[in-house]
Amino acid sequence: MTTPETARLQLVQFLSPAFPVGGFAWSQGLEQAMDQGAVTRAALPQWLSDWLDHGAGWTDAVLVALALSPDADHAALDDLARAACLTCERLSETVEQGTAFNANVTALTGNDQAPAALPVAFGRACAGMPLPAPEIIAAFLLAQVQAQISAAVRFMPLGPVQGQAMLAALHPAILTRATAAATATPDDLASATWGADIAQMRHETMTTRIFRS
């Protein structure tokens, strides 16, 4: 039987940058927003906060929570996850990372599952962990915010330590959203970050770019 201590180590492994899902290649439209000056070093914390409260951070958190349920219909949740993507790049991002995540988990555990979008694949893999749902969801959100901050560090004049300070400042917000998502239903799936959505659409036609979204 998996202990909470073992489960936490597994959770950290799943969300480590070394776990090969290709997250370093995506920015969820942040690259375009930075390139146009809409997101600066000063504005980045608010961008990330809005992402957590009203954007893909929230919808992914809800999808993880729903996928953690013992009676979850993961195929239906995968359909929901795909439908929640408003751009081609966002769809590719969550599906490709989810497919890679699923393949890695299958290789490690021998438990073969159908490919799914990242939050669904992650929630499904963690469903048997003896850990509170908010803890699992918060860990997922932390990793996702960390990936966006890493993208900002590579693109703009933002030092790694400054990026880590931003991440630490977002800990309370991450915990708040994770707790709310843990009791959410499919009716709570909603987003209202139009600036980020438009940035993802415009990113598709950027002449020079270093990220895939």
What does this structure look like?
The protein is an all-alpha fold. The protein has a single domain (about 25-205), classed as Urease accessory protein UreF. Helices cover about 65% and strands about 0% of the residues. It is built from 11 helices and no strands. The chain has helices at about 5-15, 30-35, 45-55, 55-70, 75-85, 90-110, 120-125, 135-155, 160-170, 170-180, 195-205. It is globular and about 50 Å long.
Brief characterization of the structure:
This protein has 213 residues and is mostly helical.
Give me the secondary-structure topology.
Elements lengths: L3 H12 L14 H6 L8 H11 L1 H13 L5 H10 L4 H22 L8 H9 L6 H23 L4 H10 L1 H12 L11 H10 L10
Helix pairs in contact: 3-4, 4-5, 4-7, 4-8, 4-10, 5-7, 6-7, 8-9, 8-10
Which parts are unreliable, with pLDDT below 50 for 5 consecutive residues or more?
A: none
* The top level CATH class name: Mainly Alpha
Q: What's the total helix number?
A: 11
Whole-number mean pLDDT: 96
β-sheet strand percentage:
under 5%
**Rg, Cα atoms, Å:** 16 Å
CATH topological fold name: Urease accessory protein UreF
Topology, number of strands: 0
Oligomeric category:
single chain
The structural class is mainly alpha
- In the CATH hierarchy, what is the architecture at level 2? Orthogonal Bundle
Helix percent band:
55-70%
Order of helices and strands: HHHHHHHHHHH
Main β-sheet: number of strands, strand sense, barrel status?
none
* Separation, N- and C-terminal Cα atoms: 40 Å
Query: How many discrete domains?
Result: 1
The outline comes out as globular
